[in-house]
Automatic annotation (TrEMBL):
Compositionally biased region (Polar residues): 1382-1391
Basic residues: bias regions: 1398-1408
Organism: Ensete ventricosum
Protein name: Sister chromatid cohesion protein
UniProt lineage: Eukaryota, Viridiplantae, Streptophyta, Embryophyta, Tracheophyta
Residue ranges of the TM segments: none
Length: 1408
C-alpha cells in the first residue's frame, strides 16, 4: 500500500533535521521531498504536515549550502511549498529574504541550457512567476533583490530560450514595474534597451517597455526632459545617450515620447554646435524611421529641422543634408518631401564648398531613386555646380553626375525612361570643363577619357549611345562644339602620330642611327601632348619602345584602324591588357593609350546609325530635329572623314530628301568627306550642278566645294563647263544671288578657270549690278534688313569679286585689286558712278557696310596692299551716321580679331565705338575691347618672358597698346579735326575721346595686377610711342604732321595726369618702330620746330581741361559705371591739381633764384635727324613729368661723343646718368635747361651747343631715327633674322635681330615688285630709338643694291613678303603698301572690265 505524500514529507522533514548529513544523503532526501511535494495540491490545511519540512529547509546550513545542486534542490522544494501553501506561506520576512536570494541565485545559471539542472531552474522560474513572488519581495522590502533579479534576467536571457521562459521573466518584471518604478530600476531597463551587443536583453527591455508604457511614461519623460534641459550634467552615462534612448523608445513605444519630442526644438536652437548637431542627427533619424509621419505629429520640430539646413555651422548643415536625403528616400511623396527638396535646393549655392558638395551628392542620390518624378529644376541646378569656383567641388560633382547619367542611360535602354533634356545637360556641362584651366583633370586630355569610358555604362550598345549623343548634341552651342572638336582633333593627332611612330620603329630595325633615335623621340614628344602628364608620358613611351613583344604593337596598330568595330576594338584592348598583366610597369599607361588611340568616342558604327536615323525620320518620340543629327555628323566627319566609308548609299539617300536645310548639310558633308568616299562624280554631278545654278547660296557654296573634293585637280574640265553654264545663266536674270555665289567659289577653287570668264563676269557685276539703277522700293523679302533687291544683288556682286582675290591654292596676286580697293572706298565715301545709281538711303547704308566688310575680308590676306587712306576709311566707318554700319563693322572686326585673321591695328575701331552714343554699341564695344586687350596682353607677356629680346622694337609692335599709333594717325586725318585757331577744350575732348579712351583702357589693363611692373611697363611703353611720334612726320601727307604732333602732345600730357604715382621703366621704349607707310623721319629741324610751335597752346592745364571735358562728355553718352577705365579720371585730375599747386610754389621760388633761366633754357641741339638718349629705368613719375613739362626744366647731362656717319650726319647721345638723378632730387627740383656754356664732344673735340627753341626742348628724350626713303631696308637674311642696312649709323645688329616664332616669321623686304619704284611701294619700317647708343654700338654701313638685280632672290623674297599678312601683331608694326593713288576713282572701273594683263606677284597662300 502506497505511502501518502503528506507522510513522506513529514518523514523527510525529520531526516533533514538530523545533523551532519552527507551531500549524497541530502540530495537523496531533497529529491524525495521534491517528488512528494509535486504530488500535493494547493491547500492551507497542509500547513501542519509541512511544518517540520519547512523548519528543516529553513536551516541556514541548507539555505547557504556550498553545493550548487543542494541549493538548487532546496530552492525547488521552497517553490513547491510556497505553491502548496499559497497565498500565505508560513515564513517570516527574514526567511523569505533568504528564500528569494536562493531562488534568484538559481536564475543565474539559466543561460546554461545544456545543464542537466536547466529543467529544474526553468520550473522554479515559471513557479516564481505564477505565484507572483515578486510582489512579496516588494512587500517585505527586498528592493535590492528585485534590482539583482532584473540584472540576472537581462544577463541570462538568450535568443535560444523557450518562449515560456522569456515570458516568465517578462511577467515577473512587469509585475515589479506595475507595482513600483524606481530610478535604479529604470536605469537597468534603459541600459539594457541600449545594449545592442545582447539582442535578447534589448528585446526583453523593449517588450518590458511596451508592456509597461503607461507606467513608465512619466518617469521616462522626466528623465529625458531633465537630460534635454540640464546640459551640464554630463557625468551621468545615460544623459550622454539620451538621444539614442529617445530613438529606441520611438521605435518601440513612441507614445511615451509625446511630451518629450517637442522639447527637441530647444536643442535645435541652442548655441552649442555639438548639441545642435546631435539634435539634427536624432530628428533626422526619427523622420526617416517614421517615413515622415513624425513631421505630421511634431510639425514644429520638423520645420526647425529644415531650418538647420541653413544653420550657421557647416557641420550642422552637412548633417541636415545627409538626414534630409534619408528622409526623402523613406517617403518621396507628399508635401513634406517637397519641403525637404526646397530646403536642399538652397544648399546647392551654399557659401561653404563642403556643403555644396554634399548637397549635389544628395540630389544625385535622390534623383537616382526616382528618375521619373524627380524635379528637373533641381537636377539642372546640381549640374550647374560643374561651374563651381572650387576645383574640389567640380571634381566630386562630375563623378556623381556621371554616376547619375549612367543610371539614366540604363533606364532608357530598358524602356523605363525616355530621353530627357535635363539629364542630357550633364554631358553638355562636363564637356565645357575643357575650358577650365585651374585643374588638369578637366583638360581635354582627361575629358576625352571621361567620354570614352565613364560617360556610358560599359554594357550599353553603340546604338543606344548614339541616341544619347544625338540627344545632348542638340543642346550644344558654339563652346560645346569647340570643345568637342578640340577633343576629337587631339585624338586624331595622336592616332596619326602613332602611325608615324610605328613606321619609324620598323625603319629603325634596318637603320638604327642617332638621327632615327631623335626622330622617334620627337614623335614621343608630340604624342605626349595627348596626356595629362606629358613628361611621364614620354618616359612611358620610351619604356614601351624597349618592349620586345611585337604583339603589343600589332594590337595597337589594329586599334588605330578606323574600320575596326567597337566590339572588336574592346576585345582587342582587353586581350592586350590581359596579355600584359596588371603588374607590368606600363600597364596603366597602355590602358590609357589604347583608349585614346582607338575609336572609343566615335566610330563608323556611330556614323552609320546617325545617318540611318536621319533617313528614317524616326525621332524615337523625342524632339531632336533632323538638322541637329546632321550637324553631329559634320562635326565627326570634319575630324574623321574616313568614317563615312561604307555609308555612301546613306549619303546619296540624304540628297533625295526634299528638305532645303538637309540638302545644305548633306552637301557640306560631301564637301568634307568627298575625297575619302567612293562616290563617282558622274553619279551626283547633275544634282550638284543644279544646286550651283538654282539652289540657295549656301547650297551653291557647298556644291562647288563638293565638286572640288570629288575631282583630282583644279584645272579639271568640269569646272570649266560649270563656270561656262553659270556665266551663261547670269544673263537669264534668275537666281542671280546663287550664280554669284557659285562664281565666287569657283574662283577660289579654280582660279585659272575663273580667269577665262573674268571679263564677262566683271562686266556683268559692274554694269548690270553695281552701276544699274533699279527702283529701290522693291524690298527684299527674304531678309529682315530693309534694303532693296537691287542693293542685295550689289552686295552679292561685291562678295563674289572679293572671293576672286582669295583663292584657296597658291596663286598670283591680280593687279586689279588696286582698282577694287578704289571701288570699295568710293562706296564708303558715297561718291562715284555706283553711288549715283542708288536712290535709297537705306541701300547706301547697306552698301557701305558691304564695302567695309569686303575690305576686311581682303585684309585677311592682302593687308600689306591696303593703303593708309583705305584703312582710315574702314576705321572711320565707326563714326558713320548709321548705327547699322557702326554695329556691323564692330561685330565683324571683333570676329576677325578673335580668329586672328586680320592685324591687331584694326582694333582701332573699338576706340571709336566705345564712345558711341548708342548704349548697345558702346557696351558691346567695351566688352569686345576688354576681351581683345586681355587676350593680346596675356600673349604678349608670355612671349616677352620667354624671349631674350624683351626690349626689341619689333617685339613691341606686338603689344596690344601699339594700336594707339594708328588711332593717332586716323584722328590726324579726320576731316573733323579742330581748326588751327580752335583752342576749345570741349571740342578737343569730344574729338580726342577715342584716343583718351584707349589710353585709359590700356592703363587700366594692368592696374588690377599685384605686380606694379606691368603697369609701369604699360605707361613707359605709351610714353615711348608718343615721344616717337613727336619726332616723326606724316608719310601720307606732310600737311598732317602738325596734327600728329598736337595729338601726341595731348597724349603725353594726359599720360602725365593719369599716371601720378607710376614709376616708369625704359625697358618698354628703348626702341620704337613706326610703320613707314604712315610715318617718316623728320629731317628738317626748322620744319619740326614750326610744327611743334603750332601746338604751343597745348599745355598741362589745357590737357587737364580736356580730360575734365572728356569726363563730362562720357557722362552724357553713358553712365560712368558702365566703363571701368573711366572711373579714376576725376580722382587723377584732383590729385594732379594738388601736386601741381605744390610744384607751382616751388617753381616760383626757383624762378626768383634764376631770373634768366627762361632765356637760356636749352637741353641739347641736334644737327642730324638721328638722335638717341638713354635714361634710368627706375625713373619716377616726377622725372618723366619734368621731362614732358613745357615749363623751364633743368638737368645735368653727360654728352657722349658724336659719331659722324658716311653721310656726314651727326649722332649725339645725351644721357641722364642714373647716379646723378634720384627720385628725391626730382621730387624737389625740376629739370633746368643747360646753359649756353655747356658743350658736346664731337669727334674728340669740344663744340658748343647751339641754342634751341622752346619747341625743340619740350621733349628732351630724342629718339634715334632711321628714315625710310631708301636709306633703310629690312631684309630676310639667310639666317632668318632681320638685318638693318643703312648709310648712316644704326643700332647694333645684334640688338636688331629678331627671331620670329615658327610659322609666323616676320619676313619683310623692299622691292619695286617688277616695276619702277613707286612712291607708295616702300616697305621699310620707321625706327625710333629712345635708348642710348655707345660709339661701339653705332656702326656705319654701306648700302648694297645687288639684291635688286638678282631676280631669283627678289622673287624668293617677294614670296616671303606676305608670310606675315595674317599676323595681327605684325600688322600693327609692319609696312602696309599703298598701291593706288587716292585720286584714282571711276577710271578704275574700265581698267577692271578691260581685263588687261597686269604685273602679278606670287604670294604664300592663306592657311585654311
Amino acid at each position: 500500500m502506497a505511502v501518502p505524500p503528506e507522510r513522506v514529507v513529514q518523514e523527510i522533514g525529520k531526516s533533514l533535521a538530523r545533523p551532519r548529513l552527507s551531500k549524497d544523503a541530502l540530495v537523496k532526501l531533497l529529491k524525495e521531498a521534491e517528488d512528494a511535494l509535486s504530488k500535493l495540491n494547493q491547500s492551507s490545511t497542509l500547513q501542519n504536515s509541512l511544518g517540520l519540512l519547512n523548519r528543516s529547509l529553513s536551516q541556514i546550513n541548507l539555505l547557504q549550502h556550498k553545493d550548487k545542486e543542494v541549493r538548487l534542490l532546496v530552492a525547488v522544494c521552497f517553490s513547491e511549498i510556497i505553491r502548496i501553501l499559497a497565498p500565505e506561506p508560513p515564513f517570516s520576512d527574514e526567511i523569505f529574504m533568504h528564500i528569494f536570494r536562493l531562488i534568484i541565485g538559481t536564475f543565474i545559471d539559466l543561460a546554461d541550457t545544456a545543464s542537466p539542472y536547466f529543467t529544474r531552474r526553468t520550473k522554479i522560474l515559471e513557479s516564481f512567476a505564477a505565484l507572483r513572488c515578486c510582489v512579496i519581495m516588494l512587500d517585505i522590502g527586498c528592493e535590492d533583490l528585485v534590482l539583482e533579479m532584473f540584472k540576472v534576467f537581462f544577463s541570462v536571457v538568450r535568443q535560444s530560450h523557450q518562449r515560456s521562459l522569456i515570458q516568465a521573466m517578462l511577467s515577473i518584471m512587469t509585475l515589479v514595474i506595475e507595482e513600483k518604478v524606481t530610478q535604479p530600476l529604470l536605469d537597468i531597463v534603459l541600459q539594457n534597451l541600449m545594449n545592442a551587443d545582447k539582442g535578447a536583453a534589448s528585446k526583453l527591455a523593449v517588450s518590458l517597455i511596451q508592456n509597461c508604457a503607461g507606467k513608465l511614461e512619466s518617469p521616462i519623460c522626466g528623465f529625458l526632459t531633465s537630460c534635454i534641459f540640464d546640459n551640464d550634467a554630463s557625468a551621468n552615462e545615460f544623459k550622454k545617450l539620451y538621444h539614442e534612448i529617445i530613438l529606441k523608445l520611438y521605435q518601440c513605444a513612441p507614445q511615451i515620447l509625446v511630451a518629450v519630442i517637442p522639447n527637441l526644438t530647444q536643442e535645435l536652437l541652442i548655441d552649442q554646435v555639438d548639441i545642435r548637431l546631435r539634435a539634427v542627427h536624432l530628428v533626422g533619424k526619427l523622420l526617416a524611421q517614421s517615413e515622415l509621419n513624425f513631421s505630421q505629429k511634431f510639425h514644429t520640430v520638423f520645420v526647425e529641422f529644415l531650418k538647420r539646413l541653413s544653420d550657421k555651422s557647416p557641420e550642422v548643415r552637412i548633417a541636415a543634408i545627409e538626414h534630409a536625403r534619408e528622409c526623402y528616400l523613406s517617403h518621396p511623396f507628399g508635401s513634406e518631401a517637397r519641403d525637404i527638396l526646397a530646403a536642399l535646393e538652397g544648399r546647392l549655392l551654399d557659401f561653404d564648398d563642403k556643403v555644396r558638395t554634399e548637397a549635389v551628392l544628395a540630389v544625385c542620390d535622390l534623383a537616382k531613386s526616382s528618375l521619373t518624378c524627380f524635379p528637373s529644376e533641381i537636377i539642372l541646378q546640381a549640374v550647374e555646380r560643374l561651374r563651381d569656383k572650387k576645383v574640389s567641388v567640380r571634381k566630386k560633382v562630375m563623378e556623381k553626375l556621371l554616376e547619375l547619367y549612367r543610371v539614366y542611360c540604363s533606364r532608357c535602354s530598358e524602356g523605363v525612361l525616355t530621353l530627357s533634356d535635363h539629364y542630357e545637360q550633364i554631358p553638355c556641362k562636363i564637356l565645357l570643363l575643357c575650358f577650365d584651366k585651374e585643374c588638369k583633370e578637366f583638360r581635354p586630355q582627361y575629358i576625352e577619357l571621361v567620354f570614352a569610358e565613364d560617360l556610358f555604362p560599359a554594357s550599353l550598345s553603340i546604338k543606344e549611345r548614339t541616341k544619347h549623343w544625338i540627344a545632348f548634341f542638340s543642346l550644344f552651342k558654339l563652346p560645346h562644339i569647340k570643345a568637342l572638336k578640340s577633343i576629337l582633333y587631339q585624338k586624331w593627332r595622336l592616332q596619326m602620330e602613332l602611325k608615324v611612330y610605328f613606321a619609324l620603329r620598323d625603319e629603325e630595325k634596318e637603320n638604327a642611327s642617332e638621327e632615327m633615335h631623335m626622330r622617334i623621340l620627337a614623335s614621343f614628344m608630340k604624342m605626349s601632348t595627348a596626356f595629362l602628364d606629358s613628361t611621364k608620358a614620354v618616359e612611358c613611351f620610351q619604356k614601351l619602345h624597349q618592349t620586345t613583344d611585337n604583339n603589343i604593337f600589332k594590337l595597337l596598330l589594329e586599334l588605330v584602324d578606323e574600320d575596326m568595330s567597337s566590339s572588336a576594338a574592346y576585345s582587342t584592348r582587353v586581350s592586350m591588357l590581359k596579355q600584359l598583366g596588371d603588374k607590368h610597369p606600363t600597364y596603366d599607361f597602355l590602358s590609357t593609350l589604347s583608349t585614346k588611340c582607338s575609336y572609343s568616342i566615335f566610330s563608323a558604327e556611330h556614323v552609320r546609325y546617325i545617318m540611318e536615323d536621319v533617313i528614317s525620320g524616326n525621332d524615337d518620340q523625342t524632339k531632336y530635329a533632323q538638322v541637329s543629327k546632321v550637324d553631329l555628323l559634320i562635326v565627326i566627319l570634319s575630324i574623321y572623314p574616313t568614317l563615312l566609308r561604307g555609308g555612301e548609299d546613306c549619303l546619296l539617300k540624304l540628297f533625295s530628301m526634299n528638305a532645303t536645310m538637309l540638302n545644305e548639310k548633306s552637301l557640306q558633308i560631301l564637301a568634307i568627306a568627298g575625297r575619302h568616299v567612293s562616290i563617282a562624280l558622274s553619279d551626283i554631278y547633275p544634282f550638284l550642278e543644279q544646286k550651283c545654278i538654282e539652289g540657295t547660296r549656301t547650297e551653291s557654296k557647298y556644291a562647288v566645294s563638293a565638286i572640288s573634293s570629288l575631282i583630282h585637280a583644279s584645272d579639271d574640265p568640269i569646272f570649266s563647263n560649270l563656270c561656262k553654264k553659270v556665266v551663261n545663266s547670269l544673263h537669264h536674270g534668275r537666281h542671280i544671288p546663287t550664280l554669284l555665289q557659285s562664281l565666287g567659289c569657283i574662283s577660289q577653287y579654280s582660279p585659272l578657270t575663273y580667269e577665262l570668264y573674268k571679263k564677262q563676269i566683271m562686266h556683268f557685276i559692274i554694269q548690270k549690278l553695281l552701276c544699274s539703277k533699279v527702283d529701290s522700293d522693291q524690298v527684299s523679302s527674304n531678309d529682315g534688313a530693309l534694303c532693296s533687291l537691287s542693293c542685295k544683288l550689289k552686295m552679292y556682286g561685291l562678295k563674289s569679286v572679293a572671293k576672286s582675290f582669295l583663292p584657296h591654292e597658291v596663286s598670283q596676286i591680280q593687279h586689279e585689286i588696286k582698282e577694287f580697293f578704289v571701288i570699295l572706298s568710293d562706296m564708303i565715301l558715297g561718291i562715284g558712278t555706283i553711288n549715283e545709281s542708288i536712290l535709297s538711303q537705306s541701300d547706301k547704308v547697306h552698301l557701305r557696310v558691304a564695302a567695309a566688310k569686303c575690305i576686311l575680308r581682303l585684309a585677311t590676306r592682302w593687308d600689306l596692299h591696303i593703303p593708309p587712306d583705305i584703312f582710315h576709311l574702314v576705321i572711320m566707318s565707326a563714326r558713320d551716321p548709321s548705327s547699322t554700319v557702326r554695329k556691323s563693322l564692330l561685330y565683324k572686326i571683333h570676329k576677325l580679331l578673335m580668329e586672328q585673321a586680320i592685324p591687331d591695328r584694326y582694333a582701332c575701331v573699338f576706340a571709336f565705338t566705345s564712345v558711341d552714343c548708342i548704349g548697345d554699341i558702346r557696351n558691346d564695344s567695351v566688352k569686345f575691347f576688354t576681351t581683345f586687350l586681355t587676350a593680346r596682353n596675356k600673349k604678349f607677356l608670355i612671349n616677352r618672358n620667354a624671349s631674350a629680346l624683351e626690349t626689341d622694337g619689333v617685339a613691341n609692335t606686338k603689344h596690344p597698346g601699339y594700336i594707339v599709333v594708328f588711332v593717332i594717325h586716323v584722328l590726324a586725318h579726320d576731316k573733323n579735326f579742330p581748326s588751327d585757331n580752335c583752342q576749345d577744350q570741349d571740342v578737343y575732348a569730344e574729338f580726342c575721346s577715342p584716343l583718351i579712351f584707349i589710353i585709359c583702357a590700356l592703363l587700366n589693363l594692368n592696374c588690377g595686377r599685384s605686380n606694379q611692373n606691368d603697369a609701369s611697363y604699360m605707361a613707359s611703353y605709351l610714353l615711348g610711342i608718343f615721344l616717337a611720334i613727336q619726332k616723326a612726320d606724316d608719310a601720307v601727307d606732310a600737311k598732317f604732321t602738325p596734327k600728329l604732333h598736337i595729338l601726341s602732345k595731348i597724349c603725353l600730357l594726359a599720360l602725365k595726369v593719369l599716371t601720378q604715382h607710376c614709376k616708369f621703366s625704359l625697358d618698354a621704349c628703348h626702341l620704337v618702330l613706326l610703320p613707314s607707310s604712315y610715318f617718316k623721319a623728320c629731317h628738317d629741324a626748322r620744319k619740326k620746330g614750326a610744327s611743334l610751335h603750332v601746338a604751343n597752346f597745348v599745355d598741362k592745364s589745357f590737357v587737364r581741361s580736356i580730360l575734365c571735358a572728356f569726363d563730362s562728355y562720357i557722362n552724357q553718352v553713358q553712365d560712368v559705371g558702365d566703363l571701368d577705365v573711366m572711373k579714376n579720371i576725376s580722382n587723377a585730375l584732383t590729385m594732379d591739381r594738388q601736386i601741381d599747386q605744390s610744384l607751382g610754389k616751388m617753381k616760383k621760388e626757383k624762378d626768383n633764384l634764376h631770373p634768366n633761366t627762361k632765356r637760356s633754357q636749352k637741353v641739347c641741339s641736334m644737327r642730324s635727324h638721328m638722335n638717341s638718349v638713354s635714361y634710368s629705368s627706375s625713373m619716377s613719375a616726377e622725372l618723366v613729368h619734368g621731362i614732358i613739362n613745357l615749363e623751364p626744366v633743368n638737368a645735368e647731362y653727360e654728352v657722349r661723343k658724336e659719331q659722324v656717319s658716311s653721310s656726314d650726319s651727326v649722332s649725339i647721345c645725351p644721357v641722364i646718368p642714373t647716379s646723378q638723378v634720384s627720385t628725391k632730387t626730382v621730387a624737389s627740383k625740376e629739370f633746368m635747361p643747360s646753359t649756353s656754356n655747356e658743350r658736346c664732344v664731337t669727334n674728340g673735340s669740344i663744340t658748343s651747343q647751339p641754342e634751341t627753341s622752346k619747341a625743340d626742348i619740350e621733349c628732351p628724350l630724342d629718339s634715334q631715327v632711321a628714315n625710310d626713303n631708301g636709306d633703310v631696308e629690312l631684309l630676310d637674311s639667310e639666317d632668318k633674322t632681320w638685318e638693318a642696312i643703312n648709310e648712316m649709323p644704326l643700332l647694333d645688329k645684334g640688338r636688331c635681330n629678331v627671331q620670329p616664332e615658327e610659322g609666323k616669321r616676320l619676313q619683310l623686304m623692299l622691292s619695286d615688285f617688277g616695276s619702277a619704284k613707286s612712291p607708295h611701294a616702300d616697305t621699310s619700317i620707321l625706327w625710333l630709338d629712345s635708348s642710348s647708343c655707345s660709339p661701339e654700338e653705332v656702326i656705319p654701313t654701306t648700302r648694297d643694291d645687288s639684291d635688286k638685280t638678282n631676280s631669283a632672290t627678289s622673287d624668293e623674297r617677294t614670296e616671303n613678303l606676305c608670310a606675315s599678312t595674317n599676323l595681327s601683331s605684325v600688322g600693327a608694326g609692319k609696312v602696309n603698301k599703298r598701291l593706288l593713288p587716292t585720286n584714282a576713282s571711276k577710271r578704275s572701273l574700265s581698267n577692271i572690265m578691260d581685263g588687261r594683263p597686269r604685273k602679278s606677284w606670287r604670294i604664300q597662300p592663306r592657311r585654311k
